[in-house]
Amino acid sequence: MATKKTSSKKARVKSSAGLSAGNSQTTALTPNSNCTAVGSGDSNDTTAIAFMSPQNGFAYWSPSVAITAPKAVNATDKGNAIVTFTKGLTVTLQQSSGGVYSVFVSGDIIDNGTLYTFINQIIYMSSGASAGEVRISKL
To answer: Which distant-in-sequence residues (6+ apart) come within 8 Å of 134 by Cβ?
Structure first.
C-alpha cells in the first residue's frame, strides 16, 4: 500500500487575483462579479480584497484594510463594459472580541444595467482566537 508524504507546514492559498495567505474567502456580489478577500494573519489583521469581473477574472479594484487603516474607498468608477465598481464603494474592517474581525462592503455595483446596492455586506470573517474557555478534568 502506498503512503502519501505530508508536510507539517500550513498550506498557503493563492487566489486567482494573485493574493496569497492562509485564509481566502470568495463572495459572489452580482451575476458578473465577485470579490476575494485574503487575511494575512499578521497582528494588524491586514486583509487584501480583489473586486473582479467576470467572476474570478480581472481585478478592477484591489484595496486592503487593517486595524490601522480600517476603511478603503473606491476613488473612481472602475470596471468593464458589463460591471462597474462605482466611486464611493467602501470596504470596512470591524474588530470583534477574541481576536476575531470581519470585513464589510457598502456602496453600489452596476451589472449589465442593473444597480446593486450593498449595505454592510460581509465579505470576510477571520477565524481568530476563540472567546470561550475549555476546562479538562480527569475523571
So the answer is: none
- Per-residue CA distances from 11 to 21, 76, 89, 97 (Å): 9, 36, 32, 26
Q: Any bridge partners for residue 61, and if so which?
A: 51
Q: Tell how far CA 62 is from the center of its chain.
A: 10
43 with 26: CB under 8 angstroms? no
Residue whose C-alpha is closest to residue 45's, from 67, 61, 30: 67
Written as one string, the DSSP assignment of 96-107 is -GGG-EEEEEEE
pTM, to two decimals: 0.77
Burial string for 82-109 (b: 16+ CB within 10 Å, else e) reads ebbbbeebbbbbeeeeeebbbbbbebbb
Half-sphere CA count of 106, side-chain side, radius 13 A: 8
User: Which residue from 85, 39, 38 is spatially nearest to 58, judged by alpha carbons?
Assistant: 85
Mean pLDDT per 10-residue interval, the chain, length 139 residues: 33 41 85 95 93 95 97 98 97 89 95 94 78 42
